Amino acid sequence: MDPVSLSLDGLLCALVVAPQVYARNRFFELFEQPALRKARRRAKLVRGIIRQLVGIAGRRGQIVGEQVLADGRVLIRFIVPELNFSRTSALSQLEAALVRYVVSRARHQATNPDDRLRIEQALGALAAGLPRPNLDAESQTNESPST
Is 142 contained in some domain? Predict the structure, then answer.
């Protein structure tokens, strides 16, 4: 895997949605580059917010405010009433989409199609250098011959 051509947004999504895929122990050299280390730190922050919103033992967080800032980041404010805890965090558009998407999935709620599309596009860019299979050709060869 060539770290130079790796999509940082795609890596961020992979590290949030499926962190075991790019485990630091197996891909140590991948995280030696400063930009990739930053993506890993941001994923850790997003996963922490998600943990607080999903909650355990009745201590589920609630998003109480979302505001788009002038620089395009999203300011998310949430509370965990049982702990008398509140937190505000400025996230990129993609990070905010990840939070909303993963929390909705964890709560078995409908996900926002725009968030899902943004995440899928970022993940698709992660493998942009890989050849894409021709699925139509494959399905034609797998069809049984008609007599």
Answer: no
Contact at 8 Å (CB) between 74 and 68? yes
**Given the structure tokens 């795609």, which residue do they identify?**
10
| Residue-range definition of the domain harbouring residue 25 | 3-126
Residue 48 has pLDDT above 90, yes or no: yes
pTM here is: 0.80
Instruction: Tally the domains of the chain.
Output: 1
> What own/partner pairs with CB < 8 Å and gap ≥ 24 does 83-91 have?
83/59, 85/52, 85/61, 87/49, 87/52, 89/45, 89/49, 91/46, 91/49
Strand partners, 62: 79
Which pLDDT does position 135 carry in this prediction?
54
